[in-house]
Amino acid sequence: MVVQVVMVHGIRTSATMWRAQVTHLQHRGVGAIAVDLPGHGSRMSEEFSVAGAFATIDSAVRDAATRGPVILVGHSMGGLLSIEYAGAEERPPLAAFIAASCTAIPRGPGLAAYRFLARRFDALPDRGMWLTDRVLDLTLPGDTRADFGAGGYAFDTQDVALRSLSVLDLLTALARIEVPLWFVNGQFDQLRVNERLFRRVAPHAELIVVPRTSHLVTAMRPRVFNAVLDLAIATVEQTW
Q1: Residue 88 and residue 79 in contact, taking contact as beta carbons nearer than 8 Å
Q2: Which stretches make up the AB hydrolase-1 domain (predicted)?
Q3: How far apart are CA 19 and CA 142, in angstroms?
Q4: What is the C-alpha separation between 190 and 84, in angstroms, rounded?
Q5: 114: how many CB neighbours lie within 10 A of its CB?
Q6: Tens digit of pLDDT for each residue in 82-111?
Q7: d(CA 153, CA 44)
Q8: In Å, what is the CA distance from 179 to each residue of 91, 170, 207, 235?
Q9: For every residue of the chain, which 3-state class applies, written as one string?
Q10: What's the whole-model pTM score?
């Protein structure tokens, strides 16, 4: 059986953000599945809900598990949801888990401030896309720049999704995760705020901090992130 990798995107973006990883995995002969969560990408017209997101992840994981051991990979919001999913009381069929740019608890003043800033940004002319495009042009390499927004941006879903994340019990979930686990953060990622706490709760996890990189670690340093995927694949192949 061949290792399978299921990838879950962050807020506002879509499955297209994983194109560099999908291409890398396909060249290796590894199964690669990038999902669109409700309200995002090809499912932009749907309403976002945590239950719908979990159903999407679970369906992809269980389908992939029929073909081989599954590595779940989540970025940002997708990582937070995947932590909760991976650490469910009824353990899902996972062989390993990579949590990227998501070592933060989405609750309290931090979440409220993030939602406030997101709403203010969304109120700008063109919903702030002129600034978003400028920042992405300056920070993302040419081979991933187009991929990040190719599936469109889920502006209308953003606030609902952010509000929904407050129900997650990430620390309880983290304590239940027994499969190999990697936290991958950019050096300047704002969601590193609870990095030490996450490592205490999941002491078997490995932390990889990518220098000179922001929150968009998968797109800013695709080759580095692909190397992390290779590490996870090698680990699963040795133990499966």
Answers
A1: no
A2: 5-227
A3: 13
A4: 20
A5: 17
A6: 999 999 999 999 999 999 999 999 876 666
A7: 9
A8: 10, 16, 15, 11
A9: CCCEEEEECCCCCCHHHHHHHHHHHHHHCCEEEEECCCCCHHHCCCCCCHHHHHHHHHHHHHHHHCCCCEEEEEECHHHHHHHHHHCCCCCCCCCEEEEECCCCCCCHHHHHHHHHHHHHHHCCHHHHHHHHHHHHHHHCCHHHHHHHCCCCCCHHHHHHHHHHHHHCCHHHHHHHCCCCEEEEEECCCHHHCCHHHHHHHCCCCEEEEECCCCCCHHHHCHHHHHHHHHHHHHHHHHHC
A10: 0.94
Query: Any idea which residue has 């309880």 for tokens?
Result: 172
Burial zone of 134 (CB within 10 Å; 0-12 exposed, 13-18 middle, 19+ buried): exposed
Note the pLDDT of residue 113.
63
Q: What is the dihedral of CA 169, 174, 179, 181, to 10 degrees?
A: 120
Instruction: For 133, list phi and psi in degrees, rounded to 5.
Output: -65, -40
Overall size of the chain counted in residues: 240
151 to 42, 106, 127, 147: CA distances (angstroms)? 7, 25, 17, 8
Residue carrying the six token digits 């706490």: 197
Q: Fill in the amino acid letter for 154.
A: A
Q: Which two tokens stand for residue 197?
A: 């706490």
CB atoms within 10 A of CB 210: 21
Return the exposure string of 160-171: e unless at least 16 CB atoms fall within 10 Å of the residue's CB, then b: ebbebbeebebb
Q: Which residue is it, tokens 């469910």?
A: 88
Residue 197 banded pLDDT, cuts 50, 70, 90: very high
